[in-house]
Amino acid sequence: MRSLSFKLIISFLVVSLVGTLLVAVLAGQATADEFGQFVFDRDLESLASQAGEYYQIHGHWGGADEVRWQGTRSMMPGGMNQGSGRGMGPGGMMAIADVNGVVVLSGAGHRVGEKLAPVEIAQGKAIESEGEFVGTVYVRPISFRPSLAEEAFLARVNRILLLATVIATGVALVLGVLIARALTQPLRELTVATRAVAAGDLAQQVAVRSQDELGELAHSFNQMSADLVRARDTRRQMTADIAHELRTPLSIILGHAEALHDGVLPPTQETFYIIHDEAQRLNRQIEDLRTLTLADAGELSLTRRLSAPGAMLERAAAAHAPHAAQKGISLELDVAPDLPEIDVDPDRMAQVISNLLDNALRYTPSGQRVRLSALKGEKTVRLVIQDSGPGIAAEQLGRIFDRFYRADKSRQRDEGGSGLGLAIAKSLVLRHQGQIWAESQPGQGSAFIVELPAAGG
Q1: From CA 56, how far away is CA 190, in angstroms rounded?
Q2: What are phi and psi of 448, to 5 degrees?
Q3: Which CATH superfamily is domain 305-453 in?
Q4: Is 0.85 topped by the overall pTM?
Q5: Are 32 and 177 in contact (CB under 8 A)?
Q6: pLDDT digits (tens, 9 = 90+) for 287-318
Q7: By CB neighbour count within 10 A (0-12 exposed, 13-18 middle, 19+ buried), where does 138 fall?
């Protein structure tokens, strides 16, 4: 199988060879034609000059038909240099007409006394004597037959054109090699990098050498490679996090079960409560993972209907009121009037609000407040959950919606939920064609904003 570089070189060579040969042939033919026309015009000028001298000497055209005119080789049939002869006179290739176009020297198919056609007069050469127009020389067009010297001249021109063709082909071949290498170098690098990725080495980057389609291809490959590395690292981290999250409740359940079996722990209500609580926690984590997986895959079914955003916040506040009261946190509602409805799955959106509210209550100190707001945007509705917690550092804002990510590393995992609440909230909001983000400053609390399309917007 021939390489792309070889095919490009051959293509450049063939195109340049055909182009230069075509130019050489056309240039050679054009040179021969123009040279023949030049010689013909020169000889016609010479005949007009002779005729002018004759008229100047005699003062009339009488006897012109009897003169043996000095012809020129280019005017002769067959192209032979016949010197002087009647070939240029009666019955020859040349005719002379007076100022009225009447033939006074027969030739070129005309007899004395006939008139030249206007087109023939236009094709002829004017004869002047002492600056005065006295007649016209007309020569019937014939094929140019070069002399030996003229043939040598044309041969030299053709050799120069052939040499130029050879040089142009050589230059085209060198340029073709350079261009082919320049074009295929990025492809070779991409091929090597692609094979490395296929072998499992995902951290491959190629040089972006241009801003054309090849450069765009290299940039896309680099982006793909970076995404693959990020996805691999995320998968590894998520696998490790899942294993850790599931191992903790399992270890507690197994430890208590073994202790009960060995008689180390008494079978008290408290022991069974711990086992049951950890089993529920494990079940919640598994259900959260299932929900998140279905949402990310786009397979989570949604039962949409028009819902009032204010009512959704009121229900969420009522459901979390006992927990908030237990922690000494006040819940405040701020619902803008005349809010449009939103087309959502009420149960899934309630899950989003509940996750955000759980997160806000978890990080808000006792005696502080959590504010739930519903605001009208341009063709959207914004739901805002504002807490009074310690806030989130700027470098952590972009990661708080990642799976199992906790901004507060010192908080125990059994106090911080499954670590999937915000990730689930993000996936569900995206499934509703909405957006979710967080705004925060350390020491001033955090605001989680959910923006959803308004119905009919």
Answers
A1: 86
A2: -105, 120
A3: Histidine kinase-like ATPase, C-terminal domain (3.30.565.10)
A4: no
A5: no
A6: 777 777 777 666 677 888 999 999 999 999 99
A7: buried
Count of residues making up the chain: 457
SS3 433: coil
Instruction: Based on DSSP, count helices (H) and strands (E) in the chain, helices before strands.
Output: 9, 11
Q: Provide CATH 1.10.287.130 ranges for the chain.
A: 213-296
Tell me the per-residue pLDDT of 156-212, one tens digit each, with 9 for 90 and over. 888 888 888 888 888 878 887 887 777 778 878 888 888 888 888 888 888 887 777
The one-letter amino acid at 115: K
Tokens 């570089």 found at: 5
Residue (of 44, 48, 61, 139) closest to 98 by Cα position: 61
Q: Which part of the chain is CATH 3.30.565.10?
A: 305-453
Fold of 213-296: Helix Hairpins (1.10.287)
Complete edge-to-edge strand list for the sheet that includes strand 132-139: 103-105, 94-98, 132-139, 125-129
Burial (CB < 10 A; 0-12, 13-18, 19+), residue 327, is middle
Q: Is 61 exposed, middle or buried (0-12, 13-18, 19+ CB in 10 A)?
A: buried
Element (H, E) at 135: strand 132-139
Tell which residue, 419, 424, 362, 421, has the closest CA to residue 245.
419
Q: Enter the tokens of residue 116.
A: 């030249």
Residue with tokens 């916040």: 313
Under 8 Å between Cβ of 219 and 211: no
Q: Are 448 and 385 in contact (CB under 8 A)?
A: yes
CA 229, 233, 239, 242 torsion-angle sign? negative
Q: In sequence order, what are the residues at sequence separation of 6 or more whose Cβ sits closer than 8 angstroms to the Cβ of residue 207?
A: 186, 189, 218
Q: In Å, how far from its chain's centre is CA 426?
A: 32
Report the alpha-carbon distance of residue 313 to residue 317 in Å, rounded.
Answer: 6
Count how many Cα atoms sit within 13 Å of the Cα of residue 219 in the half-sphere of its side chain: 8
